[in-house]
Design brief:
Elements: H1 3-16, H2 25-32, E1 43-47, H3 50-60, E2 64-69, E3 74-78, E4 83-88, E5 109-112, H4 116-127, E6 133-140, E7 147-152, E8 158-163
Length: about 170
């Protein structure tokens, strides 16, 4: 199996809970333990161009501004379920772009899209959006059924848009 497909299959197995059951009593205890966290509070992204990145989230994706700290400088944006803090790099002209293969840090932010038609519309819109780079167009994740695409928003952060499996153009 090609490396990309194998990696995608492992991610899908983890996300779907399809991995093998615990092998020991100690593993059983870990499965039954309650985590100390309760989901994502917010994500923070450093950006080169605060205005362009805010416009990407608010105008291209339809999110809304939810505050910020002008002296920091930062802007908070939300889709109603997730908050993202966008911080401007202190020296945008000399900021170093993240390399997903050599740096430790946020590899990408993955956002759920309700259906393939919305993903197709978003792909068309972002293909024309200033400063957005399409890393790859909508395609099956591994062997599917999830369909996804990845873009780099105007400041270079990788954003994945994914349609959960089974939401095809014919499902309605």
């Amino acid at each position: 199996m090609p490396k990309k497909l194998l990696t995608s299959a492992i991610v899908l197995a983890i996300c779907s809970g399809a991995l093998a059951a615990p092998a020991s009593a100690q593993d059983d205890a870990l499965v039954d333990a309650q985590p100390v966290t309760r989901g994502v509070n917010h994500i923070g992204l450093t950006v080169r161009d605060l205005d362009a990145s805010v416009a990407f989230f608010t105008e291209a994706l339809g999110w809304r501004r939810a505050g910020g700290v002008p002296d920091y400088p930062s802007v908070f944006v939300t889709d109603g379920a997730l908050f993202v803090t966008l911080w401007r790099a202190s020296d945008p002209d000399n900021a170093v772009a993240f390399n997903r293969k050599t740096n430790v840090g946020l590899h990408h932010l993955a956002l759920t899209v309700p259906d393939i038609e919305t993903l197709d519309e978003l792909h068309a819109k972002l293909s024309e959006w200033p400063g957005v780079e399409i890393e790859f167009s909508p395609e099956p994740n591994g062997g599917g059924p999830t369909i996804h695409m990845i873009v780099r928003e105007p400041s270079g952060n990788r954003i994945e848009f994914a349609v959960p499996g089974g939401r095809s153009r014919t499902d309605g």
